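Technical note accompanying the year-one report. For the benefit of new consortium partners, we illustrate the data format agreed upon in the data management plan: each record pairs a sequence with a structure-token string. No post-processing was applied to the example shown here.
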Amino acid sequence: MGLNFGQLVRPIYQKTESIAMPFQPIEPRRLYRQIADQLRQHIQRGEFPVGAKLPTERDLAQKLGVSRPSVREALIALEVEGLIEVRMSAGIFVVARESSRRVESGHGPLETIRARQVLESELAATAAGVAHPALIDGLAAALRSMRDDIDRAVMPISGDRDFHLRIAQASDNSVLLSVVTQLFDERYGALFKRFGTHFERERTWRAAVQEHQAVLDAIAARDPAAARQAMHIHLGHSHDRFADVWPTDSAAAETLLARP
């Protein structure tokens, strides 16, 4: 008499069920995190003792075979953790050997901005194709909010967020809106905040407002190609402002806007 399918597989299932499976959490390690981990190990082993000056960003990039922006994200992660300190016009110094704080393993700010550049350029073109008075009025109101905050010496993040999310909403696609919202809200993370401390000033925000105005003008003119280009330029400049040379003492003295 032959075995039925249930009789055949039951012993195999029972044997498999008894095997201990030591599953371990899987955590993707982004490049800047790998760089930060390696530098942290050098610091903890005493190869860079407290008070020591680290190699320059350029030298570290060459030694590690990675891009300077990735090194910058790693350095700022270590600064947030309290292991190093960036001193304008002086260099990067080790200030502690151990830290109880670790930066959340999220996306790096520069990588996030590049992703937004790809996505939001097309969304701006879409918005220009369906531009209606309510959208134009909403974008203009967001820009007024940004200008008002800058005049009050406050970072215009609220108006900035409103501007970009209104453009995403014009796509009438909840998935795209959710992605844009998630990417924008990376700004509230510790890494983005520290980048802002180093590189965002009244001057850079006023330049960003002018870039937003170019996007609004193209959408109001119902010119998808111009809107796509204006958004691409804006987010490209946003990336470059974070990837630019470290501010000097004189640049650091420029007006620093308070966070709302």
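Partners are asked to follow this layout when depositing records. The two ends are 79 Å apart (CA to CA).
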